[in-house]
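Check the record.
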Amino acid sequence: RNTINLGHIINALLNDYDIHLLPSNEGVNITIEMHVQGITAISELTGDFELDFMYSEIWEDQRLNFKQLNICATNITLKGEFRKRIWTPETCIINSRHSSIHTSPSENTFIILYENGIVWSNFRLKVRAPCKMDLRMFPFDSIVCKLTFESYSFNADEVRLFWHEKPLTMMEIVELPDFELIGWRTDHERLQYPNGEWDRAMVEFKFARRYGFYLFQSYFPTSLTVISSWVGFFFDVRAASAKITLGVSSLLAVSFQFGSVLRHLPRASYIKCLDVWVISSIIFIFCTLVELAIICRLNHYEREKQIGSHAVNQWINQIRFSITDIISGK
């Protein structure tokens, strides 16, 4: 094989090359794969997650076959700018809220051309995408975050997306303070638009919440607060002010603990598992105040009864003494 200048090779390949024409009249199969470098954040307030990954897509374009050039290489690695000079499937993450290509220190993209016409394009991306959150079981819930890949310009007759036989690789263990990655799965579908069908490839990440923080910050403190409010049962019935202070303080403590958790959650119209726990705690504490009111009222009735009985006894004694004096002639 002969060594040929790379510029001459590119010029030979792109001679009469039309980037607007598909590599095949029968459509192009695009194989995609992901290498996840890290999942950096999950936000309940905004309902999304962030991840860094290397995204690869592979397709065949026989117009870029250079085997006939008989050079001393089976593949050629080119900068990402070369994408502008050849046909590309224009795949995008259709459901992303924000995405960008890493530029440290330069744009993290490249293209490899193989001698048999295979094209391998690679990007290193940072993406923020939505998560499906159902907080009914919070903090014992799980969430699903999804990426959806789709060709922005070509329908399913022109571009078909397929996952690689090893579609996703986790390059490191995902460590998040609030969540644990428990699994992922890939899927494929066709979506009907007004102007035709589009191919879609999806990947879903499932996370389970780490609930240890909420046990120590919410469940245990509220349990102790409720138990503390029961101490008033052992107070003397005359210590009503102390019982009221203890009950009201317990209510304020539970409300404060609950509010500190709610600040980090989105507003939801349905009842969460934590809501049931906190409402139950508030009901228990409120019942101690109701018990105090009932005991104080009963004690008040008992005192009035005792005072009334004492007055009647005095009146009876006075009458008895008066009758005794009359009989004895005094």
Q: What stands out?
A: The chain is about 30% helix and 35% strand. The helical segments are 6-14, 212-229, 240-262, 273-327. The mean pLDDT is 86. The two ends are 152 Å apart (CA to CA).
